[in-house]
From TrEMBL:
The chain crosses the membrane at residues 75-100, 142-162, 168-189, 210-238, 258-283. Signal peptide: none annotated. Keywords: Membrane, Transmembrane, Transmembrane helix. Pfam families: DUF808. InterPro entries: YedI. This is DUF808 domain-containing protein.
Length: 292
């Protein structure tokens, strides 16, 4: 009797694990696009720092990303059980925030293009900038992770709580390992190129030289790709979850293919501009009051 119960338990466990494997694969396919955007965004977030600080920053952001998953997975499961109607509004707020950050970065880039400092507090500023980069990257990761977790939750909606928990945990941890492993590889690629250039093999030296020549162009392109990803992800959340925007794009057949991507980009920029028009004056007002 005991052996029969044990075999039944093992069979149940095997069945759950099989469901988890299948559902994790399906959820991974569904979230692949957002994970790609997450990679571009996070690689862009940690660029522009001294070489000896690149990996510590990536590690700090990766730890923050894991904490995000620890918060998001149980929170999303609780929401799906008790307040399922709240998931979409929270996603929309997160998408609008991504668009806001994108427009804010554009404004900062163009308005401060010709400004320069005197370098008096260079070391202090570098520390502050590093902390700002880490906080910004973790904040952005939180929103992207939320979308990925919600997409995964949609895939496993019909399954039990255990299967949901395991699939979403697997997606969350796997995404963090893959994304930040690749980010670490990207930011240290030039060091790998230098290492290859010191090898006796002419093929290794040629490959190393190619990497060294390619990486500056690649890192510059990441800033553009990361910015586009911010608008595409944020705009995509708005376009799919705000009724009148979705209906408008669908009526014009602007919701598929290349035109759909362009429309999503425009939605992202317009949303970010609208949020900036409201939020930036309020932020400026509060900063003035704080100064006084």
């Amino acid at each position: 009797m005991a052996f029969a119960s044990l075999f039944t338990l093992l069979d149940d466990i095997a069945s759950v694990l099989d469901d988890v494997a299948v559902m994790t694969k399906m959820a991974a396919k569904k979230t692949a696009g957002v994970v790609g955007d997450d990679l571009a965004l996070n690689a862009n977030q940690v660029t522009g720092v001294s070489a000896d600080r690149e990996l510590p920053i990536v590690w700090a952001v990766a730890k923050g990303s894991l904490i995000n998953k620890v918060i998001l997975v149980p929170f999303s499961l609780l929401l799906s059980v008790f307040l399922p109607w709240l998931i979409t509004p929270l996603l929309v707020i997160g998408g609008a925030f991504l668009c806001f950050e994108g427009v804010e970065k554009l404004l900062h880039k163009f308005l401060n293009k010709h400004s320069g400092g005197d370098g008096h507090h260079a070391a202090s500023d570098e520390i502050v900038d590093e902390k700002t980069k880490i906080k910004g990257a973790i904040r952005t990761d939180f929103i992207l992770s939320a979308e990925i977790i919600i997409i995964a939750l949609g895939v496993v909606g019909a399954y039990g709580l255990l299967t949901k928990s395991l699939v979403m945990s697997a997606i969350g941890i796997g995404m963090t390992v893959v994304v930040y492993g690749l980010v670490a590889g990207i930011v240290k690629a030039d060091d790998f190129g230098m290492w290859l250039m010191n090898k006796p093999s002419s093929a290794a030296r040629a490959l190393g030289k190619g990497i060294i020549l390619f990486m500056p162009w690649f890192m510059r392109s990441l800033s553009v790709v990361g910015m586009l990803a911010m608008f595409l992800v944020g705009g995509g959340i708005i376009a799919h979850n705000v009724g009148f925007v979705h209906d408008f794009l669908h009526a014009l057949h602007w919701d598929t293919g290349l035109i759909g991507q362009l429309a999503t980009l425009v939605v992202g920029v317009l949303t970010g501009a609208a949020v900036c028009a409201v939020v930036l004056p309020v932020m400026k007002l509060f900063s003035k009051k704080k100064a006084h």
